[in-house]
Design goal:
The structure holds 2 protein chains of 2 kinds. By secondary structure, chain A is α+β, with helices and mostly antiparallel strands. Chain A has 9 helices and 20 strands. The two termini of chain A are 35 Å apart. Chain B is mostly beta strands. Chain B has 2 domains: 165 residues, Protein Transport Mog1p, Chain A; 85 residues, Immunoglobulins (Immunoglobulin-like), CATH 2.60.40. In chain B, the strands form 4 sheets. In chain B, strands 2-3-4-8-7-6-5 form a 7-stranded antiparallel β-sheet, with helices on both faces. The chains are: A alpha+beta, B mainly beta.
Chain lengths: 423, 275
C-alpha cells in the first residue's frame, strides 16, 4: 500500500499540495443495489473485498463490480472514494475529477473536504472518510463486461491548475437484473461469482444483449458447444447431484470428465442464464418417453439414447422410427423461462418443412418490424437450426418426444415440475 | 393427444416421489440389511484391489455430504482397451438403511428407464440391486454400512467384468472388522480445534478461523457452511480460512465438515457474534 503520496511527474509544475486516492468502493451498501453495485464474489471460496480498489490493485480484473440494469434504470449510480491530502491540516478543501471511465463515464469535478489530511463526507450514513461521488455519465443498457480506466486529477485549494493524480482500472459487469436463485444478494456464498459472469458473458457471448430470452438462448448454445458428450451408457449426471449443480467442477475445466446428462445441462443453463438476470427454473420431467431423432450433446443423430449399454441390434444410436425396442428417457430435465423451454442437452432434427417455417417466420418478423425485432428473429433463426430454445411445451415436445405409436405413448405421460437448484 | 402445458402437474413425478415409489416396488422396508455392524470407511485407492491395478483413476467426485453418509464417485479408465467404469462408494455413518436408500437415489437420478431387480442371496452384498433386470451393465450392493455401485462406461462394447470387481470389493469388505459405532473411531478425522480468532466482530469485518484436524487418511476435504456471512480461503495461503461478517448484526454460525480419503467424516461448528 502506498500511503505516502503518489508519484509526481517531474515535468509538471510543483503543485502546492498533493491529493491522492486511497480506496474506491463500488458496492458501498450491501443491502441495496439500485444506486451502487451488486454483491458479488470471485467464486465459492474467494470473496471480492470491499473497497474493491486500493493502491495494491493494478489490474482491472482485481477490482470488479457488477450492476443490475433493471434496478439502476433511472437511478443515479454512485461510488465512494477515500482521498488524502498533504500537507494535512484540520480543515482543507480540494477538487477532484476523472476522465475516461468507459461505461461508467467520466467523473465531473467535485469539491472534497479534508479533515486532518483525510477526505470527509457527512452526506451519507456510511464511513465518512469516503466521499460519495455520482456517475452521471454512465452508459450501459445491455449485458456486458468492460474493463474501464479512470485517469484522476486534483486541484489544490486556491489553485487553478489540475494535476494528474493516479489511474485506476476496474472490471465492470452489467447484468439484466438481480440474479435470481441459485444466486442471491443475501446469502454471501452465492452472491454472483465473477467466474460465472465471465462464463456467461464472455464465454457465451451475451455481450450487447438485453433480452432475457436471447441471453438464455446464447447460454444454451454455449453449454451445448462445450467439449462434452451425452452419457449413452446410463444417462447419469456428473455435475449435478440431488439438486446441487457442481458449478466449480464445471468451471474448473470439467473436472468430473466429459460425460454429462440432461440434469447437468439443465443445471448449467439455469445457473449461467440466471447469473445474467434471466429467470430460468430447473424442470424435472418424468416420465418422459421415446425420442424423435435428435442430436444429444456431443453425439450424432440418435433416437436410442442409451445405445452404449445395449446389445445388438440396439447398440447403435439410430434405429428404426417407432421401434419400441429402442431405449427411451425415463425422465428428463430442462429449463423454463416465462413458460418456454430451453434445453442444451440436445438439438432437434427438424426436417425441412419445420425449419423452413421458422426461417420464413424470422424473415417476416424482420420485414414487418422494419428490422427492429432482431432478438425475436434471431431466436427464430436459432430454432430453425435446431436449437431447443424459447419453445412452448407443445412446440418442444413436438420436436423431441415421439408418441406416435401406442407403445411410445404409453412410456410418455409426465409433465415438467420445477425443482430447487443450488450451487 | 398432447398433454396440457406445464401448469398441469397431475401426471408429474418428482425425484422424491420416484424414490418412494421405487422403495415400495422393491419392498425396501423388508430388505435384510445388517444394522450395527459398521465398517470404518472404504476407499478403492486404499483397498489394494487387484482388478483395479489395470486401471487409472481418471477423476473422483465427492457427492453432496448428507449428515448420515458420505458418497464419492470414482471414475476409472483403461486407455488402451477404451474400457471404463464408475465406482460409487457410499459409507454410512449410522445405518445400512441410509446407505441402501442412497443407492436407490442414484438409480432415481438417472435418465435411463429401467426396472431394477433386487437379490438378497446374490454373490455379492447383503442386498444386490441390478439397475436393469436384463443387463449386467450396472451392479449395486450393500454390505453392512457400505454401498457400492458399479457402472460400465466402456466404449468398446465389451467392457470390464463388473461382477468380478464387485466380488473382490465385497470380499474385501467381508474381511474388514466391524464395530457397533463409528463415533470417535481412530480412522475418522478429528477436529481438535475449530474456532474464530475473534468471537465478536462488526458487520463487514473478518476473523480468521483456527482449524486443527488430525487424520490418518489424507487428503482431507474441508467443506464449510456459513450463516450471516461467508467462509473464505485466503488467496495467498490455501490452508488459511476466514469468516467475513455480513451487513447485519446477529449470531453467525460456521459449520465445518471434514471428509478423509476413506470417506469417513466429522463435523464441527462455531459461532461468531456480529454487533
Amino acid at each position: 500500500m502506498r500511503e505516502d503520496g503518489p508519484g509526481r511527474d517531474p515535468t509538471d509544475r510543483e503543485p502546492p499540495c498533493c491529493i491522492w486516492l486511497t480506496h474506491i468502493k463500488f458496492n458501498y451498501d450491501q443491502t441495496r443495489f439500485s444506486n451502487d453495485a451488486l454483491n458479488i464474489r470471485v467464486d465459492r471460496l474467494h470473496e471480492v473485498t470491499i473497497p474493491e480498489w486500493d493502491q495494491s490493485k493494478v489490474l482491472a480484473k482485481d477490482s470488479p463490480a457488477a450492476y443490475a440494469l433493471k434496478e439502476t434504470r433511472g437511478q443515479t449510480i454512485y461510488i465512494e472514494a477515500r482521498f488524502r491530502i498533504d500537507p494535512a491540516q484540520p480543515d482543507r478543501t480540494g477538487r477532484i475529477k476523472a476522465s475516461g471511465g468507459g461505461i461508467l463515464g467520466a467523473i465531473d469535478p467535485i469539491t472534497i473536504q479534508f479533515v486532518n489530511g483525510v477526505s470527509r463526507d457527512t452526506s451519507h450514513a456510511g464511513n465518512h472518510e469516503y466521499v460519495r461521488i455520482p456517475l452521471p455519465h454512465r452508459s450501459f443498457s445491455t449485458i456486458t463486461r468492460k474493463d474501464i480506466r479512470w485517469d484522476w486529477f486534483y486541484k489544490c485549494p486556491h489553485s487553478g491548475v489540475w494535476f494528474p493524480m493516479d489511474s485506476t482500472r476496474h472490471r465492470i459487469y452489467v447484468v439484466l437484473e438481480e440474479p435470481p436463485a441459485p444466486w442471491s444478494q443475501t446469502v454471501a456464498q452465492v452472491y454472483p461469482w465473477t467466474t460465472a459472469l465471465d462464463y456467461a458473458i464472455v464465454g457465451a457471448n451475451t455481450v450487447g444483449l438485453s433480452d432475457p430470452s436471447e441471453a438464455a438462448a446464447h447460454i444454451v448454445q454455449h453449454v451445448n458447444g462445450e467439449p462434452l458428450q451425452y452419457d449413452i451408457w446410463g444417462g447419469r449426471p456428473f455435475y449435478y447431484s440431488f439438486g446441487l449443480f457442481k458449478i466449480a467442477d464445471w468451471l474448473g475445466g470439467f473436472a468430473n470428465g466429459p460425460i454429462v446428462n440432461c440434469y447437468d445441462c439443465a443445471a448449467a443453463v439455469t445457473t449461467f442464464s440466471n447469473v445474467l438476470g434471466c429467470h430460468l427454473s430447473y424442470q424435472f420431467h418424468g416420465p418422459f418417453g421415446y425420442l424423435h431423432p435428435v442430436f444429444p450433446i456431443g453425439r450424432g443423430l440418435c433416437n436410442n439414447p442409451f445405445y452404449g449399454s445395449r446389445p445388438a441390434p440396439y447398440n447403435v444410436p439410430l434405429v428404426g422410427v417407432d421401434d419400441a425396442g429402442r431405449t427411451s428417457f425415463g425422465n428428463h430435465a430442462y429449463s423454463k423461462q416465462a413458460g418456454n423451454n430451453y434445453d442444451a442437452c440436445m438439438r432437434g432434427s427438424l426436417g425441412c418443412a419445420r425449419a423452413l417455417g421458422y426461417y420464413i417466420l424470422a424473415f417476416l418478423v424482420l420485414i414487418f418490424t422494419f428490422g427492429t425485432a432482431t432478438s425475436l428473429a434471431n431466436r427464430l433463426f436459432m430454432k430453425a437450426a435446431g436449437w431447443l430454445i424459447d419453445m412452448s411445451q407443445t412446440e418442444y415436445e413436438g420436436i423431441v418426444l415421439d408418441t406416435s405409436t401406442p407403445a411410445e405413448a404409453a412410456r410418455n405421460g409426465g409433465a415438467p415440475v420445477p425443482e430447487a437448484l443450488d450451487i | 393427444m398432447r398433454r396440457a402445458e406445464a401448469s398441469d402437474h397431475t401426471n408429474a413425478i418428482t425425484p422424491a416421489a420416484a424414490l418412494e415409489s421405487l422403495k415400495r416396488a422393491l419392498n425396501f422396508d423388508d430388505w435384510p440389511l445388517r444394522e450395527g455392524n459398521l465398517v470404518a470407511g472404504f476407499s478403492p485407492s486404499t483397498s489394494r484391489l487387484a482388478l483395479l491395478e489395470q486401471y487409472q483413476l481418471d477423476h473422483e467426485m465427492l457427492l453432496p455430504v448428507i449428515s448420515t453418509w458420505v458418497g464419492r464417485r470414482y471414475f476409472y479408465r483403461q486407455y488402451e482397451s477404451r474400457s471404463a467404469f464408475a465406482l460409487t462408494v457410499i459409507v454410512g455413518h449410522q445405518s445400512a438403511k441410509d446407505v441402501a436408500g442412497a443407492l436407490l437415489l442414484q438409480i432415481v437420478y438417472s435418465q435411463m428407464w429401467s426396472e431394477p431387480r433386487v437379490e438378497f442371496d446374490a454373490q455379492v452384498g447383503d442386498v444386490a440391486v441390478y439397475k436393469d433386470a436384463d443387463s449386467d451393465e450396472s451392479i449395486a450392493f450393500v454390505r453392512n454400512n457400505i454401498g457400492i455401485s458399479l457402472e460400465n462406461y466402456s466404449a468398446n462394447g465389451k467392457g470390464f467384468s463388473l461382477e468380478g470387481l464387485a466380488l473382490e470389493i465385497d470380499n474385501s469388505l467381508k474381511e474388514t472388522p466391524t464395530m457397533q459405532s463409528l463415533s470417535d473411531h481412530p480412522g475418522a478425522p478429528r477436529i481438535l480445534r475449530f474456532e474464530p480468532q475473534a468471537r465478536t466482530i462488526h458487520p463487514g469485518e473478518k476473523t480468521d478461523l483456527n482449524i486443527e484436524v488430525i487424520d490418518e487418511h489424507p487428503p482431507l476435504h474441508l467443506l464449510f457452511d456459513a450463516k450471516m456471512g461467508s467462509y473464505n480461503q485466503d488467496p495467498t495461503k490455501n490452508d488459511l480460512w476466514y469468516f467475513r461478517a455480513g451487513p447485519k448484526s446477529g449470531q453467525a454460525e460456521v459449520a465445518l465438515t471434514v471428509v478423509n480419503d476413506i470417506n469417513l467424516m466429522t463435523q464441527g461448528r462455531c459461532s461468531i457474534t456480529i454487533e
